[in-house]
């Protein structure tokens, strides 16, 4: 609906239809006649009293401002777009290779830059995406200069900064720009198979977000098997975490392509590694462990369209202690998948509950992430949607 161009009566008709109310039922709830409603919707009768507008908005479970129309984008959309553009500008600077002056900002030692990168990771894992978008432009400049001054000590912070950038851009719905960051991470990591594997985690995410499932499987499996120990029992937790996370990425890519058998096999491989790692760790910022693999099984089921299986796996996984130890970003993202699963299972009520829990844990997953806003829009259309979610959808300009 191009709502800002519609007259008030047409807006009323639109939202009445969205709420699946007949003109008679709608009129009864307002204490008006069906003829009155028909005239309002056809524009024959004007709505010039604020109290009447408010009564209509209450029955339709929307904010009265929606009936009056809005000429601006929601603040969250503007903030997200501005954040993406700031990061784009930072990635297109090429200050170091072109020998451009760094300005007044000093070139920081690699150790100090590494601490800044760790802070950015923590901020991302708390799902404070607008704040990460603010940090990244200067952080990217700092890590690039630090790497130029000390290529050995500066490589890991450089790769990690590009990983964060790619991860955030995927969240914000900019996969093409995310690919540039992920590609730079892999290029900077070349020569160290472990650091390459870490960078490949985000490259796999980017390729999946871009609809390149086959390429994602090929890339992440190559990186995974380069660091896979000959015997799982002898593997070190950090490397097992990377290898297992890459197998999860490959499994989700396979699931997205409809290959449930391959996805299940890859997740079984990852599960064997997860047992050795255990829950409650965050090696290489992966959050990998048995609970993470179980959540991935649920996500894979959503990908191939088995919502009921996904819901069952969600209920089992979130009962584990490891669920509480995962970063807020990870848990909220899983709850978005769970809302999709409930919708597949024709259970919009529980889909709404999953979204409300996601909004409680990490509001930015819904308010700033396009995928979250899309799920919210689907849930809010249902007449049984919780009033709080409907109000959130209206506030965010989601129809």
From TrEMBL:
Which regions span the lipid bilayer?
none
Q: The HTH cro/C1-type domain covers which part of the protein? A: 12-67
UniProt-listed InterPro entries: Cro/C1-type_HTH (IPR001387), Lambda_DNA-bd_dom_sf (IPR010982)
- Single GO MF annotation: DNA binding
The record's listing under SMART domains reads: HTH_XRE (SM00530)
Q: What is this protein called?
A: XRE family transcriptional regulator
- Origin, by domain of life? Bacteria
């Amino acid at each position: 609906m191009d709502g800002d161009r519609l007259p008030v009566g047409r807006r009323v008709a639109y939202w009445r239809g969205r709420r699946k109310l007949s003109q008679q039922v709608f009129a009864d709830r307002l204490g008006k006649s069906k003829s009155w409603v028909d005239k309002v919707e056809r524009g024959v009768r004007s709505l010039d009293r604020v109290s009447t507008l408010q009564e209509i908005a209450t029955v339709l479970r929307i904010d009265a401002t929606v009936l009056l129309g809005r000429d601006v984008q929601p603040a969250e959309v503007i903030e997200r777009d501005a954040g993406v553009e700031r990061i784009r500008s930072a990635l297109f600077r090429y200050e170091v290779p072109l020998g451009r002056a760094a300005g007044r900002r000093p070139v920081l030692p690699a150790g100090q830059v590494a601490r800044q990168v760790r802070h950015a990771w923590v901020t991302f894992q708390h799902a404070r995406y607008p704040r990460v978008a603010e940090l990244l432009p200067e952080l990217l400049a700092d890590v690039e200069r630090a790497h130029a001054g000390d290529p050995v000590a500066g490589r890991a912070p450089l790769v990690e900064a590009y990983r964060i950038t790619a991860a955030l851009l995927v969240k914000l719905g900019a996969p093409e720009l995310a690919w540039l960051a992920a590609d730079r991470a892999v290029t900077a990591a070349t020569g160290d198979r472990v650091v390459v594997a870490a960078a490949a985690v985000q490259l796999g995410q980017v390729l999946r977000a871009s609809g390149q499932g086959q390429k994602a499987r090929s890339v992440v499996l190559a990186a995974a098997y380069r660091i896979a120990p000959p015997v799982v029992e002898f593997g070190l937790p950090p490397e097992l975490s990377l290898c297992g996370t890459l197998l999860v990425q490959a499994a989700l890519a396979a699931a997205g392509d409809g290959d449930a058998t391959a996805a299940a096999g890859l997740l079984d491989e990852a599960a064997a590694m997860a047992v050795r790692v255990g829950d409650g760790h965050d090696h290489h910022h992966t959050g990998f462990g048995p609970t993470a693999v179980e959540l991935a099984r649920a996500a894979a089921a959503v990908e191939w369209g088995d919502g009921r299986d996904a819901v069952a796996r969600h209920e089992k996984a979130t009962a584990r202690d490891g669920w509480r130890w995962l970063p807020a970003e990870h848990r909220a993202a899983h709850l978005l998948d769970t809302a999709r699963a409930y919708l597949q299972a024709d259970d919009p009520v529980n889909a709404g509950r999953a979204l409300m829990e996601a909004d409680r844990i990490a509001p930015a997953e819904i308010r700033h992430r396009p995928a979250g806003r899309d799920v919210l829009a689907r849930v809010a259309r249902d007449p049984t949607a919780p009033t709080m979610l409907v109000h959130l959808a209206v506030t965010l300009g989601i129809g």
